[in-house]
Amino acid sequence: MEPSLQQLADNLCRLATHHDITGSWPEASLTELGSAGAWRWVIPAAYGGLGLDQVQLTQAYEAVAAGCMTTLLILTQRDRACELIADGENELLKANLLPRLMRNELLATVGISQVTTSRQGARPALTATVDGQDFVLNGVMPWVTSAARSRLIVTAAMLSDGRQLLAAVDADSPGLTIDKPMDLMALQASNTSEVHCRTVRVPRERVIRGPTANALSSGMTIRPHVVAAAGVGLAGSMASFITAHAGNADGPLRTLAEEIQHRCDAMRERLYRVTQQAASRATLHADEAGSADGPAVATDEKTDLRVAVNDLLVRVASAALVYGKGTGFLRQMPVQRLVREAMFFLVWSASSDVRVGTVARLLEAPPPETRSLSID
Known about the structure:
The chain has helices at 3-22, 27-35, 54-67, 69-86, 91-102, 113-116, 226-246, 251-289, 299-324, 334-344, 352-362, and strands at residues 108-111, 126-131, 134-144, 152-158, 164-170, 176-178, 193-203, 207-212. By secondary structure, the chain is α+β, with helices and mostly antiparallel strands. The model is unreliable at 371-376 (pLDDT under 50).
């Protein structure tokens, strides 16, 4: 890890357990992000940002996750909002918002899980209707990190004809209400809430993209492996904890600590190999088609990586608690926080394939659809 990123991780780590215990908004951690230039990472250079490439952003997210997963979650949701705005079709909106986001004059987040998570044929959670030159939103955004702390929520809604609308909604819009933060197993300080819309008006000048068949993917650039990068960062923190405590363990546990570090290192190498390959494919596609759009990473490849990271996290988290012994079970000790945060990856942006694959890996069994029906 680069020295500047390692320093950021160390600074965040010193603050993480306090925010976990108190549930207080991690203002000091966000100040550390600002000092490290994190608000500029995903903002295109044309708007004053750094426009980090896939590999650079993967490195940055790994470092933040190694220091504090709550801060990482807030940052990635903010960054996703910035990316969606930057990749949209509304040039005036970009010019208005991106420089302000780059300067951290306002915090943004996303409320898009209602369209990215399957509802199995249920009525759309958030709908949009046309009313003159405006759109009107009704329904709920089920999962919005830093909702009460954000001034801008990038959200997606469904029209009656099945098309989607992607828009930047002011958090203080009339008709928009934010529930109190959810009581979470971990990451309580992220202020994650449900957001409700009751006839919330969205002017056309606040529309990022749409209405279109798939507002979240049409024209969007390829993202790095955000969740996998965060998982590798967290696994690295747990491996460091294990290594630090292995010196007081007996011989076999010291040897096993070395194996844990080896597996974490191998997963990190795999992450960067896959990320570099994806970046190369995206560049090739852009050269051939004049655009960076397209499936630069095969779905199976992304799923396999997520499953492997989930499997590693569950196993390393269990091992970390073993090495922490009884004191590791105390609320004020960092290891219990790391263990709970590892469980978040089992539900974070986890598709059906990721969930099935994760359980199969933990059981050391093939997924049901690949299992032989032979009864020999």
